[in-house]
Amino acid sequence: MLNRHVRLVRRPAGKLSAADLELVEGPIPEPGPGEVLVRNTWLSIDPSIRIRLAETTPNGYLPPLRPGDDLTGLALGTVVESRDPDFAVGDLVSHTLGYREYALVGSRVQTIGGYGAPARIDAGELPPQWFLGPLGSAGLTAYVGLFEILELDPGDTLWVSSAAGAVGALAAQLAKIRGATVIGSAGSAAKIGFLRDELGIPSFDYHDGPLPESLAALAPGGIDAYFDNVGGDHLTAALDALRYAGRIALCGAVSGYDGAAPQGPPNLFTMVSKGLRMRGFRAGSFTHLEEPMRREVSGYLADGRLTYRESVFNGIEEAPAALPAMLSGATVGKTLCRLGA
Ligand SMILES: NC(=O)c1ccc[n+]([C@@H]2O[C@H](COP(=O)([O-])OP(=O)(O)OC[C@H]3O[C@@H](n4cnc5c(N)ncnc54)[C@H](OP(=O)(O)O)[C@@H]3O)[C@@H](O)[C@H]2O)c1
Questions:
Q1: Which of 91, 216, 269, 273 has its CA 20 to 30 A from that of 292?
Q2: Could you give the percent of the chain with pLDDT greater than 90?
Q3: Is 40 in contact with 105 (CB distance < 8 Å)?
Q4: Would the pTM of this model clear 0.85, i.e. be above it?
Q5: Contacts for 33 with CB less than 8 Å, ≥ 6 apart
Q6: Residue of 96, 167, 194 to mutate, ligand 1, most atoms within 8 A of C-beta
Q7: Residue 252 contacts residue 222 (beta carbons within 8 Å)
């Protein structure tokens, strides 16, 4: 038996294509003392790995990958061999060595800002992949951004960008459940239909016209808070649309990840003129909120108040195509790759 894994062939010139990645075969690694061998069952396909495919990465972030390196990412799997007394064969674990069929997981594994250290998951009767989605990183990111960073108030009018994505769809719904007035944006008519008709979130397609006009049509009085997944022109529009003392949670800036030069907002002085507050965050710095998030989100999933959508690719052979598909907007909700089904 061999271990198939995805590695970077060359740095993408512009948008990432599946041809920039390749599936290679190698031996299944042997666990040493303190390590466990995990057979991965679910891979999380996240935008952030694209940042590491560039020549340089932002100050404070993980270093760039080099051609020939394996991709990494959050994943779930089953322990098949253990030389760590904390893990037994059969345990379901989450870790950061995705994009491969078998992962050698130990305490030295690289984490994403502290998030993703190997952890046993007790999924009970729940679908295990929810622990990569609404009960995992996506849920924690939405929860932290709304309640820690924005300190969301039920009287707020909130804009969530990339609202049909993994984090955005959860953030938009959680904010609505907590009483805020929520508007969303996304990149296709199908996604706007999903947001409006299935989630009840008034939304606009950012391709359909100038952002300030689209925002004004749904929030004529302006917004109090902005959950930023996109950066660039979206952040610029939010700064203009925010009312006095408005708040921004900088969650990500996906418009600048996939080959486009990152665009800083030219209207930062509105932070001064309107007394705005903007704060970036890494969900991994707030793991103490994982339990309260899981309690709240699992309750909404159980009583049907929260809708969770996922786009699933099948088999490690589809993983190289899954990442560019997600980045280009071809998937809805949480993007995953299922292995060994
Ligand atoms: N701070 C943290 O701890 C943390 C943790 C996880 C994720 N994040 C960030 O959260 C954001 C969302 O992540 P996710 O996992 O939920 O991804 P996602 O929203 O499920 O997928 C990414 C989406 O970005 C949209 N997009 C791509 N290029 C765009 C552009 N130029 N303008 C506007 N939208 C564009 C596409 O949807 P459309 O069809 O709508 O264009 C695409 O589907 C990302 O910025 C990510 O880096 C941050």
A1: 91
A2: 92
A3: no
A4: yes
A5: 83
A6: 167
A7: no
